[in-house]
Amino acid sequence: MGYDIERFVGYVNEGLLCSICRDVLEDPLQAPCEHAFCTACIHGWLVHHSNCPEDRQVIDVSLLRPLYRYMKNDLNRLQLHCRNREFGCEMVCSLESIDRHERECEYSQIPCSNAGCSVQVERRNLDGHLAVCEYRSRECPNGCGYTILSAEDTQHNCVAELRTELELLRSEMICRVEEAKHEMESRLDSQRRHMVQKESILQNEIEELKSQMSRMMSDVRSLMAAERQHRQELEQAELEKREL
C-alpha cells in the first residue's frame, strides 16, 4: 500500500500515484509499459494475474524495474504531514525524510519498556509513564538486594526470597559437585584402564626378556660344557704326546 494522498501538501502528479491502490507510490517499481506501482501492490497483483492492471499488457516480476530517476526525485520532493498529525505533530517534511522523522517523532505511539506492561504511550510521555507504571522495577528498600515490581510489593518477603535463593544455590552446588565427581570418576576409570593396559604390555615384555635370558643361559651352559670337553681332549692329547 502507498502513502495516503490526504497526507500530502499541494498537488500530486498523477504519474506518482500507484495504478493499483491509487495512493502515492511507496517503494515504487515500474513495468515496461511505464505504469508505476507500490512494490507490495504489484507483487500481490501478480500472484493472481499476469498482466498490467492498467493496460492489460503481459508483465512478469522479472520485468519490473526501479522508477525513472527524474520521477524518483519528484516523488522524494513531495511534502507531507507526519502520520502522527492526529496526536498533535505538526511536522511537514519531504517524502525522502519522512521515515527518519517518524522513527524519532515525539508523538509516535511506542510500547512501555517494562516487561508485562501492554500500555502504548507517546514517546514524549514515556518517562512520565515509566515513573508510575505498575510494572516498573526497583531494588528492595529493605536491603535484600532483590529487584521487585511495584505490583509485587505487598507479596515480597525478604527472608522467604533469600531462603529460596539459598536453596537454589545449594541445589546448584550439589549438582556441580556431582558433575565434578562423575567427571573425576570417569577420568580415574580411564587412567585405570590405561594403567592396566600398560601393565599388561610391560608384563609381556618382562616374560619375553625372561625367555630370552633363559635361552642365553642355556647357550652359555652349552658353551661351557663344550669348553670343558675341549680342555679334556687337549689334556688327553698332551698325555699321549708325553707317552710317545
UniProtKB/TrEMBL annotation:
What's a single GO MF annotation on this record? ligase activity
Q: Which InterPro entries match?
A: Znf_RING, Znf_RING/FYVE/PHD, Znf_RING_CS, Znf_TRAF
* SUPFAM superfamilies, per the entry: RING/U-box, TRAF domain-like
The coiled-coil regions, if any, are 192-243
Q: What is this protein called?
A: RNF41 ligase
| Organism name | Hylia prasina
Q: Which GO terms describe its biological process?
A: regulation of canonical NF-kappaB signal transduction
Where in the numbering of this chain does the RING-type domain appear? 18-56
Gene name of this polypeptide: Rnf41
- Which superkingdom, per the lineage? Eukaryota
Give yes or no: UniProt keyword Transferase.
no
Sequence ranges assigned to domain TRAF-type in this UniProt record:
101-144
Q: Which UniProt keywords apply?
A: Coiled coil, Ligase, Metal-binding, Zinc, Zinc-finger
Pfam families, per database record: zf-C3HC4_2, zf-TRAF
Zinc fingers classed as TRAF-type: ranges:
101-144
Q: Which PANTHER family match?
A: RECEPTOR-ASSOCIATED FACTOR, PUTATIVE-RELATED (PTHR10131:SF157), TNF RECEPTOR ASSOCIATED FACTOR (PTHR10131)
